[in-house]
Structure formats: C-alpha cells, structure tokens
Hints:
Layout: E1 4-8, H1 15-23, E2 30-35, H2 39-46, E3 54-59, H3 64-68, E4 73-76, H4 88-109, E5 114-117, H5 122-135, E6 144-146, H6 149-161, E7 170-179, E8 182-191, H7 192-198
Parallel strand pairs: 1-2, 1-4, 2-3, 4-5, 5-6
Antiparallel strand pairs: 7-8
Helix pairs in contact: 4-5
Amino acid sequence: HSPKVAVLGASGGIGQPLSLLLKQSPLISQLSLYDIAHVKGVAADLSHIETQAQVTAHLGPGELAECLFGANVVIIPAGMPRKPGMTRDDLFNTNASIVAELIDSCAKNCPKAMICIITNPVNSTVPIAAEILKRHNVYDPKRLFGVTTLDVVRSNTFIAQAKVCSFFAGFLIFVFRILLCERFLAPLLAGTQVLQFFL
C-alpha cells in the first residue's frame, strides 16, 4: 500500500521544492497539493514528471477537506516566512491561526495521518497542533512531528561560511522538546567525536 501524501502550502517557497522532491519518490501513490493561490499551476508542472504519484490540486478552504481525505501523511509548510525586522511574536501571531485552521481540518478528515509541521515558529506551532488534536480526541504523540531540517541545513551553511568549521568537520544537533509547560528549541554545536558516539 503506497501512501497518499498531502502538502498544505504547496505553492510557497518551501512547498514547491518539497512537492517536487515528493513527486520523485517511488513510495508515494498520490500527492495532493493545497494552497490558497497558484497551486493548480504547480500541480500541472509536477504532473509531467514520469513517476507513479498522481498529483491533484486543491485551491482554497472549500477544497481542503477533499485534499486531506484519506491522507496517510500531511506536511505543512504553509504560513508567512520571517521577514527582516519581524519578531518571533509577529511571526507567531500570523502563522498560529493558519496552522490551527489546517490542523482542525486534519483532525476531521485524516485523524490517523502522520502530521509534519514546518511552519515557523515550529516550537510554538506544534503545541498548538497538539492541543487541537486533543480537542478532537485524535492526538497521538507518535504521529505529530516538528520538522527543523531546513534550520539545520541553513545553520551548517552559515557556520561553514564563517569558517568556524567545514561541512565535513562540524554539524548541528537541534534539540526539540515539547511539554505542556515548556517550549525549547536550541542549536547545539558538536564535533565529529560526539557524532561517532551517537552512531
């Protein structure tokens, strides 16, 4: 059984390249793309790639339920990116409501799906998602994820450019812990010996 994957925010700066990577996966049978604008063009372009995943486009809130119905994996890069001068609170105030609306629909249309949240600030949007899923009695901590891969890639690049270390000599570990009363997201510099220890 090949999974159905839904990308919410598929026409954005993260959503488009993410959808391209997913379309190339031989493991996916259906790729459902959702956004509030431009998603039909993105879906049309991706549908020309000769892989098994069938691409469908879903535009606007009226088509969100159809996009999510039967999804095994939901990935959420939707939201506004952080702009120069914008505080974390500004970003949260905008993106929290977006994530809340999308998660509410997930709870109703694909309650057993694995949900991966990319929308920043991740350490605040994931707890919001958890609370909404709990409200619908479908919360499973093993099926809700905060994705910080992009932060790790960017951090490694910035550090290498600053000549603190090379791509091969250093790396970052992001510790991501969420409790009801605690939010914590911090980069930790570590060396290759630590990497070997964990492997």
